Structures are given as C-alpha cells and as structure tokens.
C-alpha cells in the first residue's frame, strides 16, 4: 500500500502532525500551570488538539492513497476513530499533569501509543474496499514498539526540559512517533481483492472526508493560536507581577532606608522660604516631628557660627551655577545644645524665568561617627600609642615650626632629650608588660610637670623629649631638669615590688646651638650622652667640646671599621697557670688596636665603641677565628680562652658559627674555652641556656667571667652548665689589704669546690696574693705576675713545652725574685 500513496501526502501530513503536537504541548503546559476548572479545560483542549492531529495525519495520508480498487469510508467508524484519539490523548495528558515522574511519563507514553494505534486500526476498519485487508503481525509489532519509544522520549523532553527549546523538540519526537506508526502499519497491510465483496456504495465520500479533515485542521490551528496566546499572556502577567513585586520591594526598601538610614531629607522653597524636613532630619537632631518651624530660616539658626560662612558660600556658588551640586560638611545644633556633624548635599530642581533658583532638595547625612574616627586617626598619627604623649613625628613638626618662628621673629626655645637609666634591667627582671606600665607612669609624671606652652614627647623605647617654650633660660632649664629627675626617681610599685629608675637629660638651646631641628636635637642628644658618661641621673647642657668629642668618636669609629676590614687589629695573649704545679695551661686571647696615628688604643676605649656601633659582632668573630688559628699551630695542646660579648651571645646560630671556625682552623673543640658574663645571659635566659648546652655538646668549655660583680651569680651557677668561675680582679687585688675581700675570695673558692666547678683567679700581681690563693686551693691563676698580655711570639718557648716557672725570666726585674719563689715546683 505504501507504493500507492501520492507524493504530496508525506510532507503535508508531517506538517499537520507537527503543528498539532506543538499546539498540544503548549496547551498541556497551560494545564500543568493551572488548577481547578481551568486545568480541566486546558486538558480537554490538549486532548482535542492532540487527537485531531493524530486523526488528521492518518486520514490525510488515506486521501493520498490511490489503490486500484474502489474505496469508501464508513461514517461511524471514521468518527469513532477521531473520538478514540481525543479520549486517549486527554487521558495521557491528565496522567502526566498529575505526576511528572519517570513512571508517569512511561505510563502516559504507552497510553498515548495505544490511543494512536487504536485510532489507526479503527480508521482502517472503516475503510470499505471490494476485498479484505491482510496484516503482517511482525511489522505491526515493530510499529507499536517504535511509536512507544518515540512517544516516551517526547514526553521526557517536555517534562525534564533538557534542551533550550523543549517544546519544539518534544513536538518533533511525537510527530515522528505518529508518522512512524502510520506508515509502518500501512506497510504491514495488504489489500486482497475478493469478488464476493461488492464495491462500496454510499458511506463517506472522499470530498466529505477532505472537508472534515480541513475542519479538524482549522480546529488544530485554533488550538495552536490559543496556546500561543495563552503563553504570551502568561509571560506578560508574570512579567507584570515580577515588575509589580520589584516595585513593591523597592518602595518598601526606600521607606525603610528613609526610616532607618542616616539621611535626613529636606525640600526648600527658596522663593517663599517654606521648608519641609523629613522625620529623620528632625530626630537626627533630637527633635520630635513638627517641633521645629518649617522655614529655611530654621536651618540658618541651627548651623554652627564657624561653619555658616563656608556653607552659605558653597550654597551661593551652586545657585549661581558655579557648582553642579551643593555639598558641604558642617555642624548643626542639636536640641540638647550639642553640635552634630552632617554632610549636606543638594541640587536646585526648579528655576524661574530669569534663571533664579526657586526650589532645592537634598539630604543631611549624619557623619558624626566618621568625624570622630578621623579625629581619632589624626590623634593616633600625632601621638604615641602606649603613653598618649606626642610622638616623634609630631615633635619634629612642632620643633621645626618653633625654630622657623624664632628665625623670623626672634625669641628662643630649648630641647631636652631624656633617657631612663636602668630601664633594661626592669624589662629583664620583671618583664616587658611591667616595662610598658612603667613607661606609661613615667609619661604621666613628666606630663604633670609640663607648662601648657611646653610639649613632652615619647621618641621611642625609653627615650623622651621636651620642647620648652615657656621659659628657656639656663636657670629655668636646670630647675626643670632637677624636677624631672626627682619625680622620675621616686619608686614605682608593681605587684608589691618597688622599682626605681633614673633619668639622664641633655639640653640644647636655640638659636645658640642651632636653628635646624635635626642639628638642635642631635646636640641635645650629645649632651644626654655626656650626662650618661658622667654617671647618669643628671643633666648636662650642650657645649662645643661635646661636638668635638663626638667628631673624634666618629673618626675613631671610621678608623675601627677600617682596621677590621684591613687587618689593623692584633691579638695579645695572657698566660693561665695551674697553681699547684706551676704548669702553663693556656692563654686568654685579648684584642688590641694599634692605631697608625694614636698608637695603642686601650680596649676600654674601643670595645665599648664597637658595642655601641654594632661592630662588636664582627670584632668578636675576628678574635675567635684568629685565636683558634694561632692555637692550632702551637706545639703544645694548650687551651685558648676567648671572651664573647652579650650582643654576640644573642645570635641563635652562635654554636654553628663557632663550630665552623673550629673546622676551618683545625682546632680541637676541647682546646677552646668561651668566657661570658652574666649580662650576656640575662637578656634571654632560656635562649642562653640552649646556646650553652649546644656549645657544651660540641666539647667546648664555658667559663663565667667577672664572677662576684653580678647580683644573681648563685642562681646563675645553679641553672647554667659552667666549667669554670673567674674571680674578678677587684676582689683578688684586695685580698692582702681587705679582710672582707679575702673572705669573699675564700667563699667563692669553697663554692666552686662544693659545686665541682673549677675556679680561676684573675689579676694576680704579687707573690703574697699567689700564696694566699695556693693556700686556699685555687686551681688556676692569671695576672701580671705571670706575664702581661703580649703577642704570641713572646711566648714561643712556653708554647714549645716549658713550664710556667721558666716564663718568669721575662718579668720585670723587681718582680723576678717573688715570681721565682712563687713558681717553685
């Protein structure tokens, strides 16, 4: 039968089928989005559109069927096939509307497939020919299976919407299902002529069928138009609803913003003087609604007198067109009489024929919090965070301004540099928190003594400065310095513990000592340096000699740097002997500086300079490397002792650096002895203990130098792993003349024996001192009696293996006899 269809049948039936399916899915979408009677009506329309499309597709194809036999159509069965298609489509649409799950989709697809098949076979049953139809059951089954698969796929696309155009894709799949079922079923049927069956007479004529199909097609197009219109109407309603909801939300937000925001709205009629102010504008100033008169003059009365000229000037500039908007920060008087900062913004919205402003609207924004924050930031930028005093930056600005005024108008001022004495000890003993509290209390005492015209500032750490403008005469400055030293020197109480600090002050005056802030301050700092050098807790006025001393100091620092870089330093060695056997045990290495112009500079002069300028680390490393290098070349395995400064001991990698030097020079670690003082330990005791233990682990000996001069020596001995104690020369030098010194030395020797720590006596210069120490079982001795510090070449015989007694021939003649008696073995 497929060979007997006209060529125009396939495209026409496919077009009718696709349009009806698209309309049906549009109507089904309306049904899914509706409820009640509206949903039922949309479902009925869906069933009608889908059934009509299925029926029209079938009978359009039948109109194109031109068999060699006469053909007619039974009216009842033809109409029944249309009813079957519409009914099953309605049922499938109802099922998929109620539940869109996978099971409902499959069930709806099978139901709709069955309806399409029922319509087809009912319609074929209504076809009248002089013969009968013979069916191929396999092809019929294939038609049903393929139709079911495509129908279910169409419903899945429609419900799950996996593509951008789900409705069009679903219509295409459903049209394919209907067409496939029709044409595969037509291929499964064969018309067999039968002479016993008469040709059809009466029934539905082909023209009547064509008219019916046309009516059904028009109905389908109407449903399609209805679907399109409903969809557009729904979208329009949804858009309007969305815009309406957005408008309502915007109105609510605007109302809330006006109620809860910081903006006070105002609307002024410049011509009549009438004004409107929002409730927020009134409550912002503490007034109740309606409490103030609604007039522009009200604003004029509330503006701060200092701000009114600027506000009126900016307002007039906007009125004249010189400014696009009016914007001004000013203060308004509150109901309680206080002043509140606002940011006023406005714009002219109406002008008369001459261009004069008639109406201006705007806002007043409360900026009180911002102004307070700005003031706080400005205060922080100019004041010290800990003490609240003026900071360094602000102090220099004030000093610069004062000096410029003096240079221009005359007058005088003074700068006082203040530095706390013993403040580091406070930090080391009671902690940094107590140190901070001490600084705050010191700042309070200083501020209490200041004249209103004077300024006290914290420059950093425990350093303060005072700019004196009230009375910078010499006598007044000295009196003020004495008062400040006295008030700071009074004890401070922390947790029941009394702490005392001192105050050193340096003073410089302008214009006598300079009119440039950096120069004047540096000269006050020089005077402070002199005050500290002369015993601390005092004040000194700058004089020209201090400048000369500082110049010499800078030159000495420069020369010391050059000496370190060019090898201008040398090592001298002082012997250490065993008291009981007079055996030479080793040497202490001591740095010496032979200046090309000034000769030999004492260690007491250049060692403190190295500590103050930061050169001590480089100097200490040079001494250690040179001493180890020298000792590694000695024939005898004598020890070499090297002092470490507190600054060197603060380096965490000190053990590794020392070990690297030992490896570089080839000296055995057990021949190196490191001497440290209590000062090096107290900066950070836990770190110091860790460093000492790491040095001990390398095999290096540790000696405590200057024992007896510190205030926590016993506690230090208990906590730290020392191998030796060196009794300070100040005690050894008095054992023959001071019973107290002898008792102290005897006690230290007993302490060393009790703790199992060796004791070395420094500064032994007489045979009597040596006899006392030997009698008290002192183990090691060191001093001028055995030799002054000299280059190692002076001890060539000694390091070659001779005893210390043989070294006595190098002593001055006056001491030879005593030395020989002392060295007698």
Describe the structure.
The chain has about 800 residues and is an alpha/beta fold. The chain has 4 domains: about 1-230, no CATH class; about 260-375, PAS domain (Beta-Lactamase, 2-Layer Sandwich); about 385-540, 2-Layer Sandwich (Alpha-Beta Plaits); about 555-825, TIM Barrel (Alpha-Beta Barrel). Helix content is about 55%, strand content about 20%. It has 28 helices and 25 strands. An 8-stranded mixed β-barrel has the order 17-18-20-21-22-23-24-25, surrounded by 4 helices. A hairpin with a 5-residue loop joins strand 5 and strand 6. Helix 13 packs antiparallel against helix 14 (about 430-450). The protein is elongated, with a radius of gyration of 55 Å. Residues about 250-255 and about 800-825 have low confidence and may be disordered.
Shape, principal axes of CA atoms: elongated
Task: Please state how the strands of the largest beta sheet are arranged side by side.
Answer: 17-18-20-21-22-23-24-25
Oligomer: single chain
Low-confidence stretches: 250-257, 801-825
**What percent strand?**
15-25%
CATH fold-level label of the largest domain:
TIM Barrel
Q: How many distinct helices?
A: 28
CATH architecture of the largest domain, by name, is: Alpha-Beta Barrel
Number of domains: 4
By secondary-structure content and strand pairing, the structural class works out as alpha/beta
State the helicity in percent bands.
40-55%
Count all strands and give the number: 25
In the CATH hierarchy, what is the superfamily of the largest domain? EAL domain
Average pLDDT level: 82
Radius of gyration computed on alpha carbons: 55 Å
Distance between the termini: 143 Å
For the sheet with most strands, the description reads:
8 strands, mixed, barrel
The CATH class assignment of the largest domain is Alpha Beta
């Amino acid at each position: 039968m497929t060979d007997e269809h006209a060529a125009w049948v396939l495209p026409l039936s496919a077009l009718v089928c696709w349009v009806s399916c698209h309309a049906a899915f549009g109507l089904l979408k309306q049904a899914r989005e509706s409820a009640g009677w509206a949903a039922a009506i949309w479902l009925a329309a869906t069933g009608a559109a889908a059934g009509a499309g299925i029926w029209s597709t079938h009978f359009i194809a039948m109109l194109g069927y031109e068999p060699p036999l006469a053909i007619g159509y039974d009216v009842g069965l033809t109409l029944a096939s249309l009813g079957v298609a519409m009914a099953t489509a309605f049922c499938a649409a109802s099922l998929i509307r109620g539940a869109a799950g996978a099971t409902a989709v499959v069930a709806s697809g099978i139901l709709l497939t069955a309806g399409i098949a029922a319509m087809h076979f009912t319609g074929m049953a209504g076809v009248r020919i002089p013969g009968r139809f013979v069916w191929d059951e396999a092809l019929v089954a294939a038609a049903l299976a393929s139709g079911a698969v495509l129908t279910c796929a169409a419903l899945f696309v429609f419900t799950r919407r996996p593509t951008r155009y789900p409705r069009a894709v679903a219509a295409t799949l459903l049209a394919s299902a209907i067409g496939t079922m029709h044409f595969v079923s037509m291929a499964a049927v064969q018309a067999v002529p039968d002479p016993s069956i008469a040709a059809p007479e009466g029934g539905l004529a082909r023209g009547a069928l064509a008219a019916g199909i046309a009516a059904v097609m028009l109905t389908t197009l109407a449903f399609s138009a209805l679907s399109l219109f409903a969809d557009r109407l729904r979208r329009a309603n949804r858009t309007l609803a969305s815009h309406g909801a957005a408008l309502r939300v915007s109105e609510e937000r605007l109302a809330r913003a006006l109620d809860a925001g910081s903006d006070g709205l105002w609307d002024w009629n410049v011509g009549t003087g009438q004004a409107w102010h929002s409730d927020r504008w009134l409550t912002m100033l503490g007034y109740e609604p309606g409490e103030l008169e609604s007039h522009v003059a009200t604003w004029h009365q509330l503006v701060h007198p200092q701000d009114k000229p600027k506000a009126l000037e900016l307002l007039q500039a906007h009125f004249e067109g010189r400014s696009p908007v009016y914007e001004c920060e000013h203060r308004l008087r509150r109901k309680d009489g206080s002043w509140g900062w606002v940011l006023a913004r406005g714009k002219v919205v109406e002008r008369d024929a001459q261009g004069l402003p008639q109406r201006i609207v705007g806002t007043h924004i409360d900026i009180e919090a911002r102004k307070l924050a700005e003031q706080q930031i400005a205060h922080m930028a100019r004041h010290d965070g800990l003490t609240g005093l003026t900071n360094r930056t602000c102090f220099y600005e004030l000093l610069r301004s004062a000096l410029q005024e003096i240079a221009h108008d005359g007058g005088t001022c003074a700068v006082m540099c203040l530095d706390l004495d013993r403040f580091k000890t406070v930090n080391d003993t009671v902690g940094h928190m107590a140190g901070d509290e001490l600084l705050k209390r010191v700042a309070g005492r200083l501020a209490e003594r200041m004249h209103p015209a004077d300024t006290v500032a914290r420059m950093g750490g425990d350093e303060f400065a005072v700019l004196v403008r009230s009375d910078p005469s010499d006598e007044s400055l000295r009196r003020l310095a004495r008062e400040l030293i006295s008030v700071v020197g009074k004890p401070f109480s922390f947790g029941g513990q009394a702490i005392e600090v001192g105050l050193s002050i340096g003073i410089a005056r302008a214009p006598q000592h300079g009119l440039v802030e950096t120069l004047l301050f540096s000269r006050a700092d020089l005077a402070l340096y002199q005050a500290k050098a002369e015993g601390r807790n005092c004040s000194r006025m700058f004089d020209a000699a201090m400048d000369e001393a500082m110049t010499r100091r800078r030159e000495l620092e420069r020369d010391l740097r050059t000496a370190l870089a060019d090898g201008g330093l040398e090592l001298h060695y002082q012997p250490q002997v065993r008291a009981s056997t007079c055996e030479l045990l080793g040497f202490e290495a001591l740095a010496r500086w032979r200046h090309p112009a000034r000769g030999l500079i004492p260690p007491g002069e250049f060692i403190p300079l190295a500590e103050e300028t930061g050169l001590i680390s480089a100097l200490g490393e040079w001494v250690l490397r040179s001493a180890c290098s020298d000792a590694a070349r000695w024939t005898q395995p004598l020890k070499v002792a090297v002092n470490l400064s507190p600054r060197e001991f603060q380096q965490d990698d000190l053990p590794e650096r020392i070990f690297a030097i030992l490896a570089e020079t080839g000296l055995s670690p057990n021949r190196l002895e490191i001497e440290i003082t209590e000062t090096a330990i107290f900066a950070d005791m836990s770190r110091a203990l860790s460093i000492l233990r790491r040095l001990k682990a390398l095999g290096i000996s540790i000696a405590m130098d200057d024992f007896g001069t510190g205030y926590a020596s016993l506690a230090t001995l208990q906590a730290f792993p020392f191998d030796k104690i060196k009794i300070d020369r100040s005690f050894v030098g008095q054992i023959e003349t001071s019973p107290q010194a002898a008792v102290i030395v005897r006690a230290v020797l007993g302490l060393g024996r009790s703790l199992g720590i060796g004791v070395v006596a420094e500064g032994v210069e007489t045979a009597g001192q040596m006899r006392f120490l030997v009698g008290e079982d002192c183990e090691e001795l060191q001093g001028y009696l055995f030799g002054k510090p000299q280059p190692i070449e002076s001890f060539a015989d000694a390091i070659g293996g001779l005893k210390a007694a043989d070294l006595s021939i190098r002593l001055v003649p006056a001491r030879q006899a005593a030395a020989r008696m002392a060295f007698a073995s």
